[in-house]
Amino acid sequence: MEIKVRNVCPVAVSKLDRLAKEKGLSRQAFLKEQLETLSIIEEVEKREQAIDDLYDRTIETMKKCSDAMTNMDHTFHKLTGEDEE
């Protein structure tokens, strides 16, 4: 599919050309890459947030498990009459 953009500031076009050249791309290839990236950025951000949320929940669960194990260890030592180390 073809997209045309008119009345772009010459300074912006110059900067786009420089960025494209730095990546070894034509202006068209660079803009195509940027538009395709822009079209999926919202979905990528949602997935990144879901991963961050999962990470936070995992850390919280690990802390709860650690606390539970510490409590069980204390209880075990109390029941057996052993000194805790």
Structure summary:
With 85 residues, the protein is an all-alpha fold. It is 79% helix and 0% strand.
Could you please describe the fold and organization of this structure?
- The structure is a single chain.
- It is rod-shaped, with a radius of gyration of 28 Å.
- It has helices spanning 10-22, 27-80.
- Helix 1 (10-22) crosses helix 2.
- By secondary structure, it is mainly alpha-helical.
- The protein has one domain (10-80).
The major β-sheet equals: none
Overall pLDDT: 95
The best one-word shape is rod-shaped
The quaternary organization reads as: single chain
Low-confidence stretches: none
- Secondary structure: helix percent: over 70%
Give the count of structural domains.
Answer: 1
Annotate the secondary structure layout.
Elements: H1 10-22, H2 27-80
Helix pairs in contact: 1-2
Search tags:
rod-shaped, 85 residues, mainly alpha
